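Support request, please re-run this one:
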Amino acid sequence: MDYVKAFMVGGIICALVQILMEKTKMMPGRIMVLLVCSGVVLGALGVYAPFSEWAGAGASVPLLGFGNVLWKGMKEAIDKDGFLGLFRGGFTACAAGVSAALIFSYIASWVFKSKMKK
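Re-run finished. Output below.
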């Protein structure tokens, strides 16, 4: 049942983003930034943690979850290091995910040949 719930929540988030892309003139990059910032705001308000616990991977995998991870890292680093934690915390919290994305995309560039779009 957890898989179904995660799939449904993730699907609803993706469907809402698709509607936003179709019905507005917002570019995908701006929508991505909006999602990350929304995750930060929801995390700061204390809404995201219970939602993520209920929805599981359906809430933690999309960009909303990335924003929440940034918020958690900044909050912990600010509590520990003070003002410098504001700049350091987000990078520390998301380093593993960003590093994995870079490494796997680099490996994929060896396997597949990219072509220019015509």
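DSSP finds six helices and no strands in the chain. Helices lie at 2-23, 28-45, 48-55, 57-60, 63-81, 85-111.
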